[in-house]
Amino acid sequence: MNAVEVERLRVVRGGKVVLHDLSCGVASGSVTGLLGPSGSGKSTLIRAIVGVQRVAGGGVRVLGSPAGAKQLRARVGYMTQTPSVYGDLTVRENLRFFASVLGASRDRVEEAIAEVSLLEDADRVVARLSGGQRARVSLAAALLGAPELLVLDEPTVGLDPVLRRDLWRLFHELAEQGATLIVSSHVMDEADRCTALLLIREGQLLAQGTPAELRARTGAEQLDDAFLRLIETRS
Q1: Which of 18, 123, 165, 211 lies in the 20 to 30 Å Cα band around 192?
Q2: What is the pTM of this model?
């Protein structure tokens, strides 16, 4: 069963086709990596999935409803590529505000802060944090409502290797608890951390499958080599 179904999705921005009749699915309970170079259309696809992107054709269904439907607001968590929290509030103040909007408890605020390893910085003003720390505050806000679908746009950019490892461990723990995650990245070495992959380039789906399936399909041992071979077969 798929948590997300994308059917012949077409997006045009500024007169340029950004997504070319793209179709794909995201299995429920998976940690699906959305990978491709910068400018490939990853963020546009993500915005379409969360229902904030105007589309020229096709459609997206999320958890059985049209993307952006009102009933999905409490069921989908979204972390944007640019931190979407208030710089003049502390980490804890930000999360308490978003928790009040979502109807989450104070206990859940503290849990989310701990999950992204920010307990020591919980009372610091967000504007004084590093870029990676601000990104983790945004991630914590997305986690507050215990969403069924968590959509994360480049969540590990700017993080050190230890934090990246810990966040990927958290992503898999959430999936084991029943959540579905879509994690975008332009870093191919993160592909092996995913249970499924969507590889896109220039607004088109190159391949979809598990890391093992993509290795078998291309005959490549490394996933970055598999990606290159997929590009070559399209040329």
Answers
A1: 18
A2: 0.90
